Amino acid sequence: MLFLLLDFFKQFSNAEKVTVVDSTANGGSGITISTPSLHDLQIYGVIVTILLCFIVFGGVKIINKVAPAFLMPVLFSILCIYIGVLSAPGLNSPKGITGLSTTTLVDNWSADYQRTNDAGVPDPNGPIYWDFNALLGLFFPAVTGIMAGSNRSASLKDTQSSIPIGTLYATLLTTMMYLLSVFLFGALATRQELLTDRLLTATVAWPAPAVIHIGIILSTLGAALQSLTGAPRLLVAIANDDILPVLNCFKAYEGSEPHVATLFTSFICISCVVIGNLDLITPTITMFFLLCYAGVNLSCFLLDLLDAPSWRPRWKLHHWSLSLIGALLCIVIMFMISWAFTVVSLALASLIYYYVSLKGKAGDWGDGFKSAYFQLALRSLRSLGVLTMSAAANQVHPKNWYPIPLIFCRPWGRLPEDVPCHPKLADFANFMKKKGRGMSIFVSIIDGDYHESAEDAKAVCRQLSAYIDDKRCEGVAEIIVAPSMSDGFRSIVQTMGLGNLKPNIVVMRYPEIWRSENLTQIPSTFVGIINDCITANKAVVTVKGLDEWPNEYQRQYGTIDLYWIVRDGGLMLLLSQLLLTKDSFEDCKIQVFCIAEEDTEAEELKADIKKFLYDLRMRAEVIVVTMKSFEAHADGSSRIDDTQEAYTSAQNRIKVYLSEMKETAEREGRPLMEGGKQVVVNEQKVDKFLNTMLKLNATILRHSRMAVVVLVSLPAPPLNQPAYCYMEYMDLLVENVPRMLMVRGYRRDVVTLFT
């Protein structure tokens, strides 16, 4: 169009650039072609673009009114071209126009790619070489109008009917016109004429070239107005959907004109015009269009293949294979045009998708990949045996075992209302997973009636989810409303999770505050939780000293000591190794303490455990404590340390508690009861249990007083003993140990020699 305008207004042009094209190689003589200067193209192009922008600012209604004024002359000029082609050659036709001839068509059938100068004029010495791939990128923008209806869907009366019908008709019509034009002009003029006459359509048109000149100008102006109208509205639609938060400045109210977006689009258009050569820009535009079409095809492919219930296209002649072929063709064409730019474009698109996933707000447009993720998750669950009842499928091999901790958020005491979980529990959950990967389930129980507390539960769930995200922990939040904590936990331990994806470790804080705050209900609740875990075959990890647990930036130096007393499937060993994978504990060393009956067995036991750890590729120092030295810790000098005082106090408190329980039972004429359950008191067993805890605590204080963290086997609550007694046992075990993990495994191995 600018060439025509500059030809009309030659007196306003600064200069004309004359390019000599040597066509002797084709058997002809040298031909001189004049072309406007780059400077003139830039100036007049910017002026025309600014004038079009002022028209667009008038609103879409004005554009719709003047659209027929642009369309009718264009259709008439196309008709004149076909009439001229059929009637050629005319009296004044150049020598290169032979008229429709099969000989000419055969001569032009083979490829003969040319070089051009920066202005696009054929030049054997030009710097730009055009091959098939480059011409494909140049031509492709001519067929990119198929999304025009979708881009202006808000202006259509019936989008569901108009868009598919209009798109298909437009695609079929333009395809036939392009193919027909290729054959007609290939049979109309010689190759030299096709290369040198840049307005061959005007030369052959009936009745005069001026008709085509007017048609080209109006067609170009009309297409420019449509683009300047549709692009800002598409930008505003993306901004209003909050898909890309960086585009919030382009938001516009419904029914208002997108002035800011129009200014931004105008700036981009003027920048492209300043380049002065659209042949260099069109391959870039082609890449963006191909990415768009590939994305649309990929979305349709995923939705149709995955049988999404919301996928109900009105166009029934559709199959997922067509969408897949379309998406692959787009990618192939991109690589044909420029593999380097394709890689950059795909990387940029991936970054935008990641940014949208990270920062974009949820909307009602959906995401085809979400359906793929859902189906992939279902397939993975089937492969894990989650969706089957097969006993073999439910057995997880130790080398495939992952900790899935159930984090008990608020079991003891009170936290501030705006704090949904102990601040260190998420840190500890991350320490239990290698590189923080793996699922955690954070559970909190609200006492009360579900119908009355449902809204409170939703609010707490939102707070807990925000806490998990803030701690960068891979986990989900679950809130249970139950009459009591015991009832709530019993429901959780039975129903939470799916198959092999059910939580396998219950993590909770040790109730250190139960005596100081006189929380008399804690012992029965704590014992009930442990017994429920044993019944449900869940491992238990109770953390003592959670307030002092280090975060990821606090480095620890020392030892991680394991007191391996009962068989736990290797859970303590695995947890210690997971701790070493964290920056906080990577400078620590592991010590494994084991109990031998006799001194003669100590060396043999030590050698066996060293061999076992070596086969497991676990580095640890093995220390064997014999029963004689174990008992000496409670009978010798250890009697004078603080543990002895705690032991005596525990004995006295248990005696007082049991005597009060007996008095109450005698007064009410019933058997000994605690928490609604009958209990049996055997004072000898109570003293034996207390004495064992005393010995173990003394051993820990002797060998591990400076340890970073101590892991010890968690004893099961004695059958039919009062829960109060068990809490006294545990208090004596953790006495003066600042940081301890009490671990109870379950009836499965979590480490193996074959991992």
TrEMBL record:
Residue span(s) of domain Amino acid permease/ SLC12A: 32-368
Signal peptide feature range: 1-15
Molecular function, one GO term: chloride:monoatomic cation symporter activity
InterPro entries: AA-permease/SLC12A_dom (IPR004841), SLC12_C (IPR018491), SLC12A_fam (IPR004842)
UniProt entry tagged with the keyword Signal: yes
Record keywords, A-Z: Membrane, Signal, Transmembrane, Transmembrane helix, Transport
Regions crossing the membrane: 43-63, 70-91, 128-148, 168-189, 204-225, 260-278, 284-306, 327-356
Compartment list: Membrane
Domain SLC12A transporter C-terminal: 423-543, 555-754
Gene3D superfamilies: Amino acid/polyamine transporter I (1.20.1740.10)
Entry GO CC: membrane
Domain of life: Eukaryota
Membrane topology according to the record: Multi-pass membrane protein
Family statement drawn from the similarity comment of this UniProt entry: Belongs to the SLC12A transporter family.
Name of protein: Cation-chloride cotransporter 1
Taxonomic source organism: Aegilops tauschii subsp. strangulata
